[in-house]
């Protein structure tokens, strides 16, 4: 790396950088609060500067993620810390980055805390009375709180609800097909595993491990999971479930793009 990138890190900065990188490698999904805080330290204090010209380059090389995705994790982590620090009476915090992400629509910690309190209060409960919070529920509460007052409905208006990526209304019976929380969680685990394998490869233990092949396999797994995400209603049955869509009622983007114009 060229010495022209920036000045060297101090010993203290190097320790903080190393600690932050270890935190990131532990798991981008399960520990998003700690990971977001670590990424924020690296970004804000430019601790990446010895090895990488930009924060974006660091994100690509060390996290295998786009800068925008890393910023989502940072913002979600900050929102969760705001909820924690605003003195919520219930010790319940967003469990995943996808649950915390909608809270970033609010500008102040107080608004984020108020929104989360409403999420907990309105969430369905299990048999023990504990809130069953999902990213979908958080998004719905935030949308309700940020929506403009609705005008009187026009009988000719299109019904509201979940839409696929083409803008078509999704039947309620298959809405779960388009819930991407599990997909994001799986991708997070794969990214974390790939980062750990790459870290092992940099040590002597890597001499006894085909880390490059494992890394390629994990990358293929990530792309396969991403490709499985539903994109549109099945054009054949329009969500009613049929043989063409394996009775799912919806199809991934790749399958949709392979269809002819007549099939769509």
Order of helices and strands: HHHHHHHHHEEH
Identify the quaternary structure here. single chain
Categorize the overall geometry. globular
Tell me, rounded to a whole number, the average pLDDT. 82
What strand order characterises the main sheet?
1-2
Rg, please?
Answer: 22 Å
Helix-strand category: mainly alpha
Largest sheet entry: 2 strands, antiparallel
* Percent in strands: under 5%
- Tally of strands: 2
Task: Quickly count the helices.
Answer: 10
Helical coverage, percent range: 40-55%
End-to-end distance, in Å?
A: 50 Å
* Regions with little confidence, pLDDT below 50 for 5+ residues: none
Description:
The protein has a two-stranded antiparallel ribbon. The chain has 264 residues and is mostly helical. 27% of the residues are buried. The chain has helices spanning 11-26, 32-44, 55-63, 67-85, 97-100, 109-122, 135-146, 181-201, 211-228, 253-258; strands spanning 230-233, 250-252. The N and C termini lie far apart (50 Å). It contains ten helices and two strands; from the N terminus they run αααααααααββα. Helix 1 (11-26) runs antiparallel to helix 2 (32-44), helix 4 crosses helix 6 (109-122) and helix 6 (109-122) packs across helix 7.
Can you tag this structure with a few keywords?
264 residues; mainly alpha; two-stranded antiparallel ribbon; 10 helices; 50% helix; 3% strand; globular
Give a quick rundown of the structure.
The chain has 264 residues and is mainly α. It has helices at residues 11-26, 32-44, 55-63, 67-85, 97-100, 109-122, 135-146, 181-201, 211-228, 253-258, and strands at 230-233, 250-252.
């Amino acid at each position: 790396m060229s010495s022209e990138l920036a000045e060297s890190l101090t010993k203290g900065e190097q320790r903080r950088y190393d600690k932050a990188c270890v935190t990131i490698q532990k798991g981008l999904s399960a520990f998003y609060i700690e990971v977001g805080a670590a990424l924020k330290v690296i970004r804000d204090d430019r601790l990446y500067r010895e090895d990488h010209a930009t924060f974006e380059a660091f994100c690509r090389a060390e996290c295998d993620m786009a800068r925008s995705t890393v910023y989502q994790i940072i913002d979600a982590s900050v929102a969760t810390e705001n909820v924690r620090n605003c003195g919520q009476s219930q010790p319940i915090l967003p469990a995943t980055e996808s649950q915390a992400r909608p809270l970033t629509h609010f500008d102040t910690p107080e608004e984020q805390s108020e929104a989360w309190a409403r999420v907990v209060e309105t969430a369905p409960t299990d048999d023990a009375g504990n809130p069953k919070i999902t990213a979908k529920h958080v998004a719905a509460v935030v949308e309700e709180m940020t929506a403009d007052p609705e005008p009187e409905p026009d009988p000719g208006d299109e019904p509201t609800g979940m839409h696929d990526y083409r803008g078509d209304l999704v039947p309620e019976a298959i809405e779960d097909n388009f819930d991407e929380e599990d997909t994001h969680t799986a991708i997070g685990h794969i990214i974390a595993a790939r980062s750990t394998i790459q870290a092992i490869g940099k040590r002597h233990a890597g001499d006894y491990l085909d880390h490059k092949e494992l890394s390629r396999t994990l990358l293929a797994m990530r792309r396969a999971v991403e490709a499985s995400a539903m994109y549109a209603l099945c054009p054949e049955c329009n969500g009613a479930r049929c043989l063409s869509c394996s009775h799912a009622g919806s199809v991934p983007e790749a399958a949709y793009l392979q269809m002819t114009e007549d099939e769509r």
